[in-house]
Amino acid sequence: MDSIRSNKRSIVEAYIKIILGTGIMGLAIKCIFDPISLVTGGFTGVAILIKKLTGTVIDGGIPLWLTNLALNIPVFLVAWGVKGKKFIGRTAVATVLLSAWLYVIPQINLVNGDYILAAIFGGVLTGIGLGMIFWANATTGGTDMVSALIQIKLKHYSIAQILQVMDGIIVVIGLYVFGLQPTLYAIVTIFIVSKVTDTMLEGMKFSKAAYIITEQYEEVAQTIMKELDRGVTGLEARGMYSGDKKCMLYCVVSKKEIVSLKELVTRIDRNAFVIVGDVREVLGEGFIEYKGN
Fold first, then answer.
1. Do both 27 and 156 map to the same domain?
2. Which of 48, 67, 122, 242 fits a 20 to 30 Å CA distance from 184?
3. pLDDT for 76-112, tens place per residue?
């Protein structure tokens, strides 16, 4: 019974994330990117292009929500036939919701022609929205879905490579339609979106990992476990110059503890060799504890 409730709760949380994520993305597209013609790739970028190109024929051009929905429908039908219902999953919901948000959000220019503000603020908002959608194991369809379908035939290319080419083509078309300045800022926006999305997915609680090579590994390990209350793993290693077998210690600590760790090691063995690296996210006791569904 508890597992059923937990599963239902996780499903509800996933759809809440999709609703909020698509809403944040819709706000960025409708009120930041569209007013100053920032084409950042994807079907929403195509929608901005089509709206501009049809503006002389239709008053205001074809709405963003309509183009986004119209482009995605045939893609989802093909994906349904090729990969089945399970492949589409929550992505269909996210795609429909994004189009719905683009329909209901009023056209308000939040940046008043400021390209720097648009690139930064719009990029951050889009990255947050995408991160929330990815948290829910979904995407917004569009070029992501098209890339996955193309990759079935072009197996020697990754989905990410195909996606980069497709979005690059859309950005280049934006260069010819809107000019150089919006395109350059669009590239800045794409970079910010990727960084913000990665940060959300990989976590913001950074830690430090230390590799310690010392002849007094037993004393160092015991002291770390006692004074810092951190686990230590001993790894078998061999010095390639001397050919001697060694025990290399591996330990993950918080950023504020790394200074204490280095002082502790040098106190025991001033000849110890310590390598410190960044760790993006740590799951487990003493850090972020994982709670299964």
1. yes
2. 67
3. 888 888 777 766 888 888 889 999 999 999 988 888 8
